[in-house]
Amino acid sequence: MLNISIVGFGYWGSKLARNFHNSAYFDILSIVDKKKINLIKAKKSLPHAECQHDYKKAIKNDLLDLVIISTPTSSHYNIAKFALENFKNILVEKPICLSLKQVKLLNKIAKKNNKMIFVDYPFLFSGTISYIKKIIDKNKYGKILEIESFREQAPIRNDTNVIWDLATHDISILTYLLKTHPRIVNTIKAQNIKKNICDRVYINLKYNKNLNVLIKNSWISPTKVRLIKIKFQKAILYCDENESLYKIKIYKRGDKKNWTDYSLEVPEIDLTEPLAKMTTYIHNALKKKKNNLFDKNFNEKVTRILEQINKK
Length: 312
Prior knowledge:
Layout: E1 2-7, H1 11-22, E2 26-32, H2 36-45, E3 50-52, H3 55-59, E4 66-69, H4 76-85, E5 89-93, H5 100-112, E6 117-120, H6 127-138, E7 144-152, H7 162-178, E8 184-190, E9 200-206, E10 212-218, E11 225-232, E12 235-240, E13 248-255, E14 258-265, H8 274-288, H9 298-311
Parallel strand pairs: 1-2, 1-4, 2-3, 4-5, 5-6, 7-10
Antiparallel strand pairs: 7-11, 8-9, 9-10, 11-12, 12-13, 13-14
Helix pairs in contact: 4-5, 6-7, 7-9
């Protein structure tokens, strides 16, 4: 069993706690939160865990193998830095930080202290993205011509904007699937609610081989949208995370000259909760001392693109 401490027991922290608690590989020793009401909830859910307000005291526990950080985005860097300096592996809720400089500093400390950094990009552990990656790697439907992604409706935040909140999902997915960096980044931003916080953004990314990507992210929407469209030479794939069962639909072209002639295929997808799969991945990575998903500066690549988008 690996011992963990969870810093932050809000909406997402409680989801992480449930998945790590249900795992056969981890034991939650402590939960940290500044809010008394969250600690009361934590104690009811996990009576064996020590609940406290001071994350530094919790992190200094020599029995810990992993510190999970699920706090406001602006606090990620300081908590992560403290944990790594105290020789703890870390899992950080996305985004890991709000600047590339901070990510590089964390990577430097992790390398020096021989510790691992994991980031909770949940869709990278989903059955849908795993399925799409296999299609792309096998070149099953030919070259990718175009990608569109839509993420609308999410809680309005005070500590960051919609780019660092929702676009992080899209950029982590694209970096994972395409394994390359866009040549050109263009954006259109809007502030509808708070003057200095972007709550809607249109992003256009241009990659090599004439690949064009369009992303729309918005906190404000009457309906929740989580849709990715990928146009291949031989098919168009729809990935709708709002669907309970049939999350992927593939429209295969019948006539090469006719873009309106399609046959529908609905593949079987692994519907295991992504966070549950993430816990297994982290356990195996720590035991085998191989963090394949996050090696080759994956977090730096994601943050570099997000920083470009945010500055445009």
